[in-house]
């Protein structure tokens, strides 16, 4: 079998029974697992970030790297409409890093922790003769908003995204705002059927929703909000579809609720909200379609980041 990230995840999922067990409300397949702890729901996620894969320490400061490693996990909270509770951080420091370097790295993590009210309550530190590696495990809480999964998209739903997409290599992947507040607000304003953060790219992350929900989806090329950085690329639309690490939100909700959101949203948030497509009847042979010029329909392949297909830092790393 060809080595692939998604293939490995599916194999693990099949062996682990989807992660099912006593107290497991949501197992493998979403941005965070949801556990029942007494009468409460607690969410958990982890992310490992590597120098040369998720960031480039020759180009980014240690403070920027520190901020990013926690912000990536905070974006998982946004993907479930959850609030962060606490994080533990484990770092493998290269032997050549000084104490001042380590403090700069941790200061960057601390900046994200303070900004999003997510205390770092522990972890582990070690050193080795390899590049910097950092792992974050983060706990989340619901605080009155039911977690939104990837698996609830319904035929006829509208597909919306926040912000502008593409061009993360221009620096956006190091200094982004996890959309925690926006996700909470959206979930309070309308029933969200499915939600995900755009870490691997619009095409790939929408494909995740379609697979988990057993639906297909149609995107309107002209409706996709393309960032100014992506517009500097040879193919701006391809950048918006596939670059990844935008860490914006992708959501599916009923068409009527989408129209209500779009009409009211500008009075609630400075972050743009755009209608980019609709959910179709499921076809496992072809999950994604792209419409151009209002007429031409073409198949669309998920072409965002895949961990077992190595690329340079910044093209999506989850």
Commentary on this structure:
With 318 residues, this protein is an alpha+beta fold. It folds into two domains: 31-141, 60s Ribosomal Protein L30, Chain: A (2-Layer Sandwich), CATH 3.30.1330; 158-299, Alpha-Beta Complex (Phosphoribosyl-aminoimidazole Synthetase, Chain A, domain 2), CATH 3.90.650.10. Helix content is 27%, strand content 27%. The protein has seven helices and 13 strands. The protein has helices spanning 5-15, 62-79, 99-115, 180-189, 202-213, 236-242, 255-264, and strands at residues 24-26, 33-37, 40-50, 83-94, 120-128, 133-141, 158-162, 192-197, 216-220, 249-253, 273-280, 288-292, 296-299. The protein has a seven-stranded mixed sheet with strand order 8-10-7-11-9-12-13, sandwiched between helices. A six-stranded mixed sheet has the order 1-2-3-6-4-5, with helices on one face. Residues 310-318 have low confidence and may be disordered.
For this entry, give a set of tags:
single chain, 318 residues, alpha+beta, 60s Ribosomal Protein L30, Chain: A, Phosphoribosyl-aminoimidazole Synthetase, Chain A, domain 2, 2 domains, 6-stranded mixed β-sheet, 13 strands, 27% strand, globular
